[in-house]
Amino acid sequence: MTVLELTQLTHWTMINSGPLEAPIEGVYVGDLLSYVMGNAKPQQAWVTMQTHQNVIAIASLKEFSVLILIDGNSMDEEALQSARDNDISILASPLPAYETIQKLVQLGL
Amino acid sequence: MMIKTYDLEANDFTAAGSISSDIKKIAKSYGMSVEMIRRVAVACYEAEINMIIHSHGGQIQLNVDEEWFTIVFRDTGPGIEDLELAMQPGWTTASVDAQSMGFGAGMGLPNIKKNVDTFELLSSPKGTLLRIGFRQKGESV
User: Fold this and answer.
1) Taking a C-beta distance cutoff of 8 angstroms, is the pair A53, B13 a contact?
2) ipTM
């Protein structure tokens, strides 16, 4: 599944658009950044409740396909600017973590 | 032989990761394998964040020669009180503020050690020196 397909299937708001044809190879869920750095894989979708600017640095260094925020969270302007600079796709799920992940599982991720 | 030096300020969370990103780009430009570039990125990021969270600031120096890609992180204190404890997964002295941002999981140094070919950590109250190396030929780990 690509980032574009995930966006169309979930109707979650895309608050920043990176490469839409990027394939999503699985999902990693985590808010402790060292666990994300140590365990997540490139091209995954990363689900997190962290919304600060440093999340973008991690998404870029780890080469995630898309960042998924939960609970309808968004990011401040500095973080969004960093997302634009680094070409990182960000989806905002209105659902809590469990339901967000449930939806991703339903979609086969 | 190539040498590049970066200055790093303490507590500058907004810039965190920018030096690691630059080093990752340089690793790519040297034609390193994708796997090794990923190891460089993880180890550098963790070390950069450690300096931002825990130190008074310092310098990061990248040295590249034909065989080795070496990065030295040198700060001006306050030092790591107990190196053995600091290496234990889950051990942290990060502030509550840093932890609420998802930092300070106590996995930084273990993550670094897991991803490098050579690891040297020296610390005193005057400063900490971390030297990590990646062998460009005959990749291991």
Assistant:
1) yes
2) 0.91
